[in-house]
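Quick board copy: two proteins, each given as sequence then tokens.
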Amino acid sequence: MIKFAKTSSALPACAIMLVVGCGKTHTQSAAPAPVQAQQPAMKPAPPTPIDKKREELGGKTWNPGWDADIEKALTPDMLSARAAHAVRSYCPRFAEEDNADKRAFWAYLFQALAGAEAGLNPTSDVHHTEPEVNKIDKVTKRPIHQEGLLQLTYEESDRYGCAFDWEKDRTLPIKDPRRTILDPATNLGCGIKIMENQIITLHKPLVESSSYWATLHPGTVSYRVFRKQMANIPKACGIGVAKPRSAVRPHEPAATAHS
């Protein structure tokens, strides 16, 4: 009877140990909570003059979601000191701004560029007949067309690694919004790659005669169209529009953003 009592009293203790052990094992095997990717701080960009005018007239306007597409696609280099040097004629306080204000400046600039290039129309398609640009696209094997918000070509998929898919697009109508080159996020993302190549890789300023976009060639009619769209630059930049020295004529003083 005594041995039986000892054996029966030991069983509950063993059972308790097993329960505690199982509890510890369960705690250790719990999967860690997934880490949420931190979104960059962003601010909406103000509207360009053409965007305001089109809203008044009931035409195509800038989609605020495109600001977010631009700001998310910006690389650290586009927020760096080298970028500040390149854009100082339009945003002299760029180096002092926080990253949210820097992203807002770029969002505004690409909105202005899209206004000057395509009138903010994401399905814009233009075929220029001037000899210097009327050539065959090396990707499509057809005459070059400038397309989308930033008037880009399929050749940029090879030159800059842009996500244009000609094999997918070739069966779709010219202005079909399903075409990858006409997708605003894809088109704008490609524009950022081109701009980064200009100001970071090649160490050239924003307004430059060798820029991909004719609207950034100083002293031209196209540049004056772009410059007019830069009349509502985010206030964090500190001043209004300042003309690059190469574009200033002796009788034509630099304008301000509110002139």
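And the next:
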Amino acid sequence: MQRRPKITLGLLVYNGERYLGQTIDSLLSQTYGDFELLVSDNASTDGTEDICRSYAMLDKRISYVRQHENIGAMGNFNYLASRATTDYFKWCAADDLIVPSFLASCIEFLDSQPDFVLCQSSTRTIGFDDRELPNEIIRPSGASERIPIGLNRKYQPSQRFRDVLLGSTAVMDIWGVIRTAALKDTGLLSPYVGYEKVLMAALSLRGRFAELPQKLFSYRIHPDSFSSRIAEDARQEWCDPAADKVTYPRLKYLTGYFDAIDKSGLSAGQKLLCRVAIGRYLLQMSKWRRVLMESILRRQLYDGNAEIISSNAATTQTPADLIHRNPS
């Protein structure tokens, strides 16, 4: 009987030939080698398939799956997680990088801290040419505890849930190492832009999040990435090409938050405190005015200047412009 590895690395890719080889090299260079790498190609039309098959021939830890049709990014996320049978799981984007000690550091921490369900490192932001960019926006969710500062404090599920809702909109935790059983218990992702924050809120009800202080993870921002898409419709199509266009999916977020509470198994008191947190989330009036204005301006900009944006994406946008800030 073949021994099961400790962690599954789920690499999702669609037309990612530019950075894919570099990303796979960073995964294969890990000092912690007890992993399987599952690559799900979302019906790419570039050279992605050839790259993946060549790597799979070189390393038996790699399994390559090509989807018959584009199942959307969220469908690809869910496909990979659902295939995992290992203790731990990590999603990997086809353009990001991790340093050789990333897996060893995260797994060592989780093995020693059963109260934690997720471990991620601090994030380094890089551009198309691997140069580091200003990192003023990319943050983990508000529930991430900087290690070792937060180890001994009491941190209730309702507090973690509140801190995800009211914290950062750029949820970098999703790229961390996660306990597979806890991840699957959340129900995973629904096909709406920004739903990863709902997933992190649901996961926070099942355990604590750790952020290691070292910058072991590099998040890439470039003109071809999802972060650079201007139109809400284009973002929604990226999540699920088959779904009806949902320009304002925030009601879906709310439904997801309430469902997460109902399915959490928490005490009545903890569930009540979680619902109070949703009330605080809804009462952020200045935030909702900003979200509304950004949505209107984004739509006007795209409708009037779609061709200009497309042709000048690589030269006219600043790093801050390219960062996707989920309005959730």
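Board note added afterward: The beta strands are 7-13, 35-41, 62-66, 88-93, 97-98, 116-126, 144-146, 177-179, 208-220.
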